[in-house]
Design goal:
The chain is an alpha/beta fold. The chain is about 45% helix and about 15% strand. The chain has a 4-stranded mixed beta sheet with strand order 1-2-3-4.
Amino acid sequence: MHPLATILAACLLLPIIGGCTAVPERAADPLPSWRDAAARTAIIDFVERTTDPNGPDFLAEADRVAVFDNDGTLWAEQPVYFQLDFAVERARRMVDEDPELATREPFRTVAEGGVVDLGELGHAGLMELLLATHSGTTAAEFTAAARAWIGEARHPVTGRPYPAMVYQPMIELLAYLERNGFSNWIVSGGGADFMRVFAEETYGIPPGRVIGSEIELEHRSTPEGGVLVRMPGLETLNDCLF
């Protein structure tokens, strides 16, 4: 075989066996679900400028940080927030175990199978519902419960699994940024521990990059060792709305 033919064959085979990238990032369509409009153009231009080592706007990978909101930005927030649906489901189980809870709101509405209206619930009612349903377990038990609910529950309007109720264009953007050396973060008013389960499995964002509201934790000793127990109080409320 001619030496040039040998080199060409090697170049063609290397992408298949993992030796190099088959298509450069900029040669493919990085955001196929996005309309060819100003926002898409601006994003691609920004990524290309900040990752070009010969350009004036180049950023080292350590400085490439992308921060996202979550509700209504990455996952759908209609008709209610995902985490509120999770809280309502846990509230139903609490009422089954303690019917006395159904004598007051918002547990009465939950017990009757009604829709919990955020406007009527108000801040105080929302906090009561969230703290009641997100406390009383160990940190590990809560994570397991959130993971199970996310895997089994269905959206009340579409009937689809909640991990399918995310915005495809944003998933493409997260992947595009990560491929270009950016670290993706979430900063939200939602519960950090709930979002961390969802974000890692759905967005590929590790728990340490999810910042949100935090519940109070108490360390307790057990025969099996120390555990963190979730308490009915807020450590931080990461939401400027309140």
